[in-house]
Amino acid sequence: MEHNPAAWLAAADQQGPGNLLRIVLVVMVVGCVLTGWFLLRGYKKDD
Question: pLDDT tens digits for 18-37?
Answer without folding.
Answer: 888 999 999 999 999 999 99
